[in-house]
Fold this sequence. Notes:
- The complex is a heterotrimer.
- Chain A is built from 17 helices and 4 strands.
- Chain A is mostly helical.
- In chain A, 75% of the residues lie in helices and 4% in strands.
- Chain B is globular and about 60 Å long.
- Chain B is mainly alpha-helical.
- In chain B, 54% of the residues are buried.
- Chain B has helices at 17-33, 36-67, 74-89, 93-97, 101-131, 138-160, 186-208, 210-220, 222-227, 232-258, 265-280, 285-305, 310-324; strands at 165-166, 176-179, 182-185, 260-261.
- The longest helix of chain B is centred in the N-terminal third of the chain and has 32 residues, at 36-67.
- Chain B has a two-stranded antiparallel ribbon with strand order 1-4. Chain B has a two-stranded antiparallel sheet with strand order 2-3.
- In chain B, a hairpin with a 2-residue loop joins strand 2 (176-179) and strand 3 (182-185).
- In chain B, 73% of the residues lie in helices and 4% in strands.
- By secondary structure, chain C is of the alpha/beta class.
- Chains in contact: A-B, B-C.
- Chain A binds chain B through residues 58, 62-64, 114, 117-119, 121-122, 124-126, 128-130, 132-133, 136-137, 140-141, 260, 264, 267, 271, 313, 316-317, 319, 321-322, 324-325, 327-329, 331-332, 335-336, 339, and chain B through 70, 72, 130, 133-134, 138-140, 142-144, 146-148, 150-151, 153-155, 157-159, 161-162, 267-268, 270-271, 274-275, 278, 282, 308-309, 311-312, 314-315, 318-319, 322, 326-327.
Amino acid sequence: MMILSGDAPRGWLLRALLIVVVAALAVAPFLFPGAKALNVAEKICVMALLAASYDLLLGYTGIVSFAHVMFFGIGSYGVALALYGIGPGWGALALGAACALVFAVALALAIGLFSLRVQSIFFAMVTLAVAYAFNVLASQLSDVTGGEDGRSFQIPPMLRPGFKLGEFADLAINGRMLCYYIVFAIGVLLFLTLLRVVNSPFGRVLQAIRENPFRAEALGYRIVFHRTLATCLSAAGAAAAGALNALWLRYVGPDTALSFSIQIDVLVIVVIGGMGSLYGSILGAALFVIAENYLQALIGRLSAGAADLHLPLLPSLLHPDRWLLWLGVMFILAVYFAPTGIVGKLREQGREGP
Amino acid sequence: MSATDDATLPRARAELLPALTPLIVAAIAAPLIGSWSTFATLTLAGVAMGMMIFTMASGLTLAFGMMDVLNFGHGAFISLGAYVATLVFLPLAAWSDADSLALNLGVFGLALAAAAIVCGGFGYVFERVLIVPVYGQHLKQILVTIGGSIVAEQLLYALFGPEQILISPPATFQGAFLVGDATIEKYRVVAMVVGFVVFIAQVVVLNRTKIGLLIRAGVENREMVEALGYRIDRLFVGVFMAGSALAGLGGVLWALYQSQVRASMGGELLVLCFIVIIVGGLGSVGGCFTGAILVALIANYAGFLAPKLALVSNILLMVVVLLWRPRGLYPVSGP
Amino acid sequence: MSERLVLQGVHTHIGRYHILQGVDLDAPAGRTTMLLGRNGAGKTTCLRTIMGLWRASRGAINLGDAAITALPASAVARAGVAYVPETMAVFSDLSVKENLLLAAREGPLDDSRLQWIFGFFPALKKFWLSRAGSLSGGQKQMVSIARALVEPRRLLLIDEPTKGLAPAIIGGLIECLREIKRSGVTILLVEQNFRVARELGDFVRVMDNGRVVHAGAMADLAADEALQGRLLGLSLDSHQ
Lengths: 354, 335, 240
């Protein structure tokens, strides 16, 4: 299984679920026609990539960073500003993405070298501060970034809904579908790359450092080097995810590209999916995005029902705007009781199976 | 015992230098600002803000210094304190609106006390429920306390509604003194006094009481304090509760300063608190005080000189300080 | 006031490592028992386990009549055990006075006891209000030992008090420990320096690979060079 870098998912149930999810994503435009479903599918792809690149840092290297969404934002804004400023062409797209990637990696390098050098406990706090400052800056430099309102822009003509390539199985193959497949394909490619990274000698050293930094250092591994490189790779993955997302949305703004709630979402996906397992990111993202889109409506109906019954407090607690509340509770429970996440539970199942 | 045994190293004079950094920053900013009155107003605003942030951050730094607990949920107590204050101010609006110093101090004092008590209580619950199961595991602590902060913020929204609540300082605290050309807001003076009292109280407790002795020793070497016969985990709960109460107090001061209460204010202030305790040195109250003044001064000067860069300037401060002193201005000696 | 310390079949695991593998040890009441052995034999782990800083996974530890096996460190300390760790663990940011105040659980510092301590540690009187972190290594060791003496205790656990100290200071330290012995407290002392061990020990227990492999009177071991060689190997300074 060279393509999976020898790290095939263990357990028949896990494999089955992964195959179902990936297959569904692969044929999503045909399986689920309609704008909303395709949006959900795209979001799953992007979040899976975002979560996987975050897990490289959290699950494999053992460090918590709050700057991940910042890199995602850099990717989004890079593509957006290039397409907005230069024009809707492939060249602009490539330029924007490339610049964003370089900038993200450079920033990750700076943060890594700085805070990992002083005291590793500072890293989480420093990334939080830097991400927050970046967020504020992006809002304030509104001439460039569009401020709170963000920027809408045009994408290359071939990727617009109006562009028609032909028909297949009663469905028009249009630019939107092409755009989706670009997102899907690059997402898959980068995921496999991450898989390669965590299964390489470098990846093993990361895990050794996570388990016992003192021992790893005694064995001669340069901790700061490895952690910084992991931070850079993680940032690159996030930036790529951001670029793809901006391309799909044809819009960038603080709420879609820099909001702290995205960071929370990623944290939740990685923890619930399973820290230290990239496959967990896929399952976690799928579960999360579907729940967010379809479950929220359900909870909203419960809330309305409770309000009709004049129950105290319940309507506001169950209000769909309070989605984060329940997410937070589930998150805490997952950290305590299921740190290996869904993947961990499935693997246990798999072992007991035939 | 030989003669060399008796040589005591002289107290390094460099120890005074970190405390002077706020003065250095002020000295640099003064010529850039130009006008004395503006400088005076900004500096006083900075000191007042610094006192408020110190109140919020001191608990955070002691909790980390003592028990290695990184509480990302600390912001929740700041917000909670502010909301509790509204529960006092709104019913007692008459006291607040009255032009009587006594009544004003009354409602203000009650709000502070209520916030401190409620936040201290919730601090106890937070510590027992969320933190105890993950003692010693930094990664999980960060995750769990972040989770806690999200849940807390959402609960505040659910209980108090998503809109901001407007709140004003009591009547006699509003307005300003005029000293020459400089405007000195009365409320800022009040905040400074409260913050200063908190600082003095901490210094007295830490240096003149046995509990303070235990805390200082515990920050350095928790294990040895236990080996001397003290239940340090009980002491820690007390410190955590005090820290949460102080955060609530700071939240009240800040909310009155901004004239509004929002659930998200805790999270935003937490970022500033982190910068302060990193700059000051984890576990050090003196460092936290110096750091808070420094951060606040820079925020105010930068806010005037280059408004868009105000927050970034604090990040730059953090970088500069850490390059100079990697463990902060006044690090605590390790075991 | 002193008591007999008894360990029976004590095992200690630290993570994956099985360090104490069934320690049977006794330190007779009111006497000084030396705990010797190579590096890594488990001596420090033994002291830390008795102190409750590490938890014994199996076995029993008794001080006199009291079972102190599963107690946390603070409870063991309150049962009358004082610990002088290898790292000294002096609180650098506190003054010498504050370091000793901390150790005085019962109440204010007993003046006569303090004078007794100043008797063999005059430097402590001189640096009474100085920051402990500014003291020399030997002086810090004095603070660490003084902390254990500030109030009467039933058992003293002392871990390598002479480690890293200049030979001239070691002589003084031995005198002090001899004085302390005279007060009749039970002492369990870990030492790498055999000369010190010989001068202070009434009894000796030798550890190897997490077990006690020899137990007897110090005088007997001191007289038997062949046995010394077998048990203690080349890693000890037997010719200081």
